[in-house]
Write a structure and sequence with these properties.
Blueprint lengths: L4 H23 L7 E2 L1 H8 L3 H13 L3 E3 L5 E3 L4 H22 L5 H19 L3 H18 L3 H23 L8 H15 L2 H21 L2
Length: about 220
């Protein structure tokens, strides 16, 4: 089994490279449409080409970069088609997760959701857009986790990077949110959960997602 150690280390390095590049994309340090060169990134991060190549594959699978073999690699561009595709998948998934999770969410879960809503609001008001997007992913991810639907959770994980990118992008291109605005948007969802009303919850979730979509499209 000792022969597996180098491979494990290589995968660990590629994961770190992927996370570094992903954070840079979310922060806008790597701009939409920017060309990515394996050799330049490897030199900058002091790693070999191989983990960078593996990281590119991961980020391409997550929808954050476009790789054209033997040609060029670019950070994705956000356009109307990209936004519509993401939300056309997200909306039915989120409604399904909400319906399945509703009877399983506990008062402690609701407290966690409220804490995340407050943390989101603070980050959004302070202009910390990447942080706000991470809290938002955790907020919505809790519904998928409590759905007890393995495939649904898996699909969520395959699209959440795209959603986080849209969240980061949407917030970056406008003034910091007024204090309380983001928290109140999410509190509507939490109140429906506390009532145990799955139909109201789905209504609030759908409204929430549609509002988010309009915010992103407005800033294209």
């Amino acid at each position: 089994m000792e022969t597996l150690n180098p491979l494990t280390k290589e995968r660990s390095t590629s994961q770190k490279v992927a996370e570094t590049l992903k954070d840079a994309i979310f922060r806008g340090e790597l701009q939409l449409g920017e060309r990515l060169v394996e050799a330049n990134i490897a030199k900058s991060l002091h790693v070999s080409i191989t983990p960078v190549r593996h990281a590119f594959t991961q980020l391409a699978n997550e929808g954050l970069i476009n790789v054209v073999p033997y040609k060029e690699t670019h950070v994705v561009q956000i356009n109307e088609t990209f936004v519509n595709e993401v939300f056309s998948v997200r909306t039915p998934l989120e409604l399904m997760a909400a319906e399945l999770a509703c009877p399983r969410l506990t008062p402690a879960d609701c407290d966690s959701l409220e804490n995340l809503a407050r943390a989101m609001d603070t980050a959004a008001h302070s202009g910390r857009n990447e942080e706000m997007a991470k809290y938002d992913i955790q907020f919505h991810g809790l519904f998928y986790e409590r759905s007890q639907h393995t495939l649904l959770l898996h699909i969520w994980k395959t699209i959440q990077a795209r959603i986080q990118l849209l969240q980061s992008y949407g917030r970056t291109h406008h003034q910091p949110a007024p204090a309380g605005e983001v928290e109140q948007r999410h509190m509507k969802i939490i109140r429906a959960v506390r009532l145990g009303d799955s139909e109201l919850l789905k209504k609030r979730v759908k409204e929430h997602i549609e509002t988010g979509k309009r915010m992103v499209l407005k800033r294209l």
